[in-house]
Amino acid sequence: MNKARRNPFNTVAMHGALILYTLIALFPVFVILINSFKSRRAIFREPLALPNADSFSMIGYETVMKQGDFFLYFQNSMIVTVASLSFILLFGAMAAYALSEYQFKGNLIMGLYLALGIMIPIRIGTVAILEMMVATGLVNTLWALILVYTAQGLPLAVFILSEFMRQVSDDLKNAGRIDGLSEYTIFFRLVLPLVRPAMATVAVFNMIPIWNDLWFPLILAPAEETKTLTLGSQVFIGQFVTDWNAVLSALSMAILPVLILYVIFSRQLIRGITSGAVK
């Protein structure tokens, strides 16, 4: 096994496969970015060419700024994403701690019940969710999206965090109890700092689907004041005419926050994934 790992050919092949996958994953982002700075004619004539003096144009970004309330859409997306991630991490960590730390009747059944949320897509219950939001008066509010995304992300958060919390030393927690710390203090001050890589992993896995989602904003919050960035970008897509400059510019501006957050959490994400692999 060790000899196979030290084989230079295996190392080169592995890195080559990773580089190829990275290029394939980044290619659509590259195409969107370069074409957002080109004129409409240049987009269709040479979609893979870099902008030059003849094809360079900022008309797409100018259109995005003039038509539609882009900054409102961006603000709504940020509020929904940050609030949803906060609830997912808080409630998911608390539930994972309870399932991993305390043995009670129904512990296993509760864990299996939460695991069903990973296997069953939440969109199956769209009609029931819409009826519930109408009954509670939450349609066309950001709370409707926050609650749905929180429910969507909790099963995976509990599944990942519970595995990490089982690895936290019992001696450390018992020492805290001997010192008179409450269970909440042990959880927030001793356990959570040790599972930060896992929490970063959960945050990244949930952040991208929430930020990019079009389904629930279109159904639960289609009003102008509650549109998210993804839904707001649809204003440039018509039945007969599509302003591709504006669409690509809006998508480019929507990609940047995700890339920035990924860079911030990347180190913790890698630590979380590698720690999970070792376990």
TrEMBL record:
Its main location: membrane. The keyword Transport applies. GO terms for cellular component: plasma membrane. It is a multi-pass membrane protein. Coiled coil: none annotated. PROSITE patterns: ABC_TM1. It is found in: Cell membrane. The chain crosses the membrane at residues 12-34, 78-99, 111-130, 142-165, 186-208, 246-265. Keywords: Cell membrane, Membrane, Transmembrane, Transmembrane helix, Transport. Residues 74-265 form the ABC transmembrane type-1 domain. InterPro entries: MetI-like (IPR000515), MetI-like_sf (IPR035906). GO terms for biological process: transmembrane transport. This is L-arabinose transport system permease protein AraQ. It comes from Ruegeria meonggei. The gene is araQ_1.
